[in-house]
Design a protein that fits this description.
This protein has 286 residues and is an alpha/beta fold. Helices cover 28% and strands 30% of the residues.
Length: 286
């Protein structure tokens, strides 16, 4: 991503060890305001460690700057401008849904009551029910509602809809776009289910074994690759193009290649991010 006056997150030489295991390996990134970024990697690639380092939850080597200042200079004021939705929640089971919302409201100067009212009205959350009585899906929905009601400049999402049904996942990402995002906000979504968020992303970061292997705008990277589809009996011809990946389907092969080489009678398809990810990183870990 290009440098500029709108840089909101700057990371330099970020390295994190857990004992002898190097979870993050000399990561350098610049992220500009107004971006919706997908952080894609296999399980254990370093996605959560990177987000938690950016929040100051972990000790690390290197430098993290938010809004032009080193992370440590923000201290407790940091959460006035940054929101975090982790893959687990820390709601108080003793409170009702309504009490939980009111409690968070009193603690956060960045609370946006107008947006909260809209999100509550759209949700089917039982306001009088205690958190401990909620299903996992309802607990996650409450956590998401609370976080999206904060008027923050940076939103970090760590597998935010993990384990939820497809209807709610679609609802959540529509809410991100419709009720939260504007050009002054920056959103980073850590996921390994790229198909669900690809349509809302402006940029993509691939991370593998603690290293950044790709950092690019979506449209730019898709223009760099193409998928060539021909009959399976032409595989020798396609292999001469040095494809990054070949998938065989019924009667055909689909080959991911750099550029758009001319192949007679071929069908050209636009690659999905998952195709490029598989070519760059390989299959996902269970």
């Amino acid at each position: 991503m290009e440098n500029g006056k709108d840089t909101i997150i700057k990371i330099e030489n970020l390295t994190k060890f857990y004992g002898k295991f190097k979870a993050l390996d000399d990561i350098t990134l610049e992220i500009n305001r107004g971006k919706i970024i997908g952080l894609l990697g296999k399980n254990g690639a370093g996605k959560s460690t990177l987000l938690r380092s950016m929040l100051g939850f972990l000790k690390y080597d290197g430098q993290v700057n938010l809004l032009g200042k080193p992370l440590h200079e923000h201290k407790e004021k940091m959460f006035n401008f940054i929101g975090f939705i982790p893959d687990v929640n820390s709601l108080d089971d003793r409170l009702t849904v309504e009490q939980t919302i009111n409690y968070v409201q009193t603690l956060n100067d960045s609370w946006n009551q107008q947006r909260a009212n809209i999100l509550i009205a759209k949700s089917d959350l039982p306001l009088k029910k205690k958190v401990k009585k909620l299903s996992k899906g309802m607990k996650t929905k409450l956590y998401l509602l609370i976080t999206l009601s904060l008027d923050v400049q940076i939103l970090l999402l760590d597998e935010p809809t993990l384990g939820l049904d497809i209807a709610f996942r679609k609802e959540f990402f529509n809410t991100i776009l419709g009720d939260f995002y504007d050009e002054n906000k920056t959103i980073i979504i850590s996921t390994h289910q790229i198909e669900e968020v690809e349509h809302i992303l402006s940029d993509i970061i691939f991370i593998d074994k603690g290293k950044i292997v790709l950092d690019e705008e979506i449209e730019t990277i898709k223009e760099q690759y193409s998928i060539i589809q021909v009959s399976r009996d032409r595989i020798d011809e396609i292999e001469k193009l040095n494809p990054l990946m070949i998938n065989q389907t019924i009667g055909n092969i689909n080959a991911l290649v750099l550029g758009k080489p001319e192949v007679e009678d071929a069908i050209y398809l636009k690659p999905q991010l998952s195709d490029i990810f598989m070519a760059k990183v390989g299959g996902s870990n269970a």
